[in-house]
Write a structure and sequence with these properties.
Structural class: alpha+beta
Helix content: 40-55%
Order of helices and strands: EEHHH
Distance between the termini: 76 Å
Oligomer: single chain
């Protein structure tokens, strides 16, 4: 049986705090310990995600628009690729018989 999640919160320093209620005394077996071990990667992932610096969506969109506008002149889908240097065309070879 998986231990019941008792508390899940972020404190003021953005540290993740997870508290599990202990399983009933009759379940202190290898299955209870294996379920706790199975939850450890989840806990590590949550701690990792809690430490990620977040920005507002509006700021991310503005930065993405600015990047696209600055690099539009280099985008082959917008300006087209020069016919002589298109890397996706197969080189034509002429064979002599």
């Amino acid at each position: 049986m998986i231990p019941e999640l008792k508390a899940f919160s972020y404190n003021s320093s953005l540290k993740l705090e997870i508290a599990f209620s202990p399983p009933p005394p009759s379940e202190h077996s290898s299955t209870a310990m294996s379920s706790v071990r199975a939850l450890q990667p989840v806990e590590e992932q949550l701690k990792l995600e809690a430490g990620v610096e977040r920005i507002k969506v509006s700021q991310a969109v503005a930065e993405l628009q600015r990047y696209c506008m600055q690099n539009a002149c280099k985008d082959a889908l917008l300006v087209g690729a020069p016919t002589g240097s298109n890397p996706f065309w197969e080189p034509r070879s002429r064979s002599l018989l």
